[in-house]
Amino acid sequence: SNNNNHNNNNNQSSTRFASTKNHSTPGMNSLSPYLNFDPRVLNPRGSQFILPEGQKEKRGRLELMFFTIGGSVIAGSMIGSVSGLYRGMTETRDLIGSVRTSSIINYVARQGATTSSAMGSIALIYSLIGTGVSWIRGVDDELNTVASGGLTGLLYRSTAGLKSALRGSLYGVAASSVYVMLTSKERLQTYM
């Protein structure tokens, strides 16, 4: 009788999922019947990610902050490493063998870490200021992006003096304005 109960439970379970379209992957059928279904069942809106009812599709600044910082650190590491490789190759021409190789590796590691740290710090400052500005204004728009860029440049270069801080702010406003013009063309046209 225990065996009959077990068979009845399997039959009920298979009829429960019979209306769900199966998407089989070779070799995966034996893992679990719960992994073998159409994902649109869970997400009828067809969105890329599952959101609670009533939540907007766009990710907020706080969520994007982690991507921005991580991407900046990785990009900084790559840019710095290439720059260090070039610098190491040009400045160690008179060296030979393992001494040259070791010197080039030192240039790559030092420049990669320095650039990575600088870009990560700038991204962290930008993200925190952007999140704060959005929270204070209660709106997440292009003005927040440009203001965050300017304030980031100002704060990042503030230890080098007033002139350097203002120049950093100008660079921040310019870079964030270019970013806004490239990513928000349609929205900017509504203001004109």
UniProtKB/TrEMBL annotation:
Region (Disordered): 1-30
Cellular compartments per GO CC: TIM23 mitochondrial import inner membrane translocase complex
Keyword Transmembrane helix applies: yes
Membrane topology classification: Multi-pass membrane protein
Molecular-function GO term, any one: protein transmembrane transporter activity
Coiled-coil positions: none
InterPro entries from the UniProt entry: Tim23-like
UniProt biased composition (Low complexity): 1-11
Membrane-crossing segments per the record: 64-86, 164-182
Keywords: Membrane, Transmembrane, Transmembrane helix
Protein name: Mitochondrial import inner membrane translocase subunit Tim23
Organism: Rotaria magnacalcarata
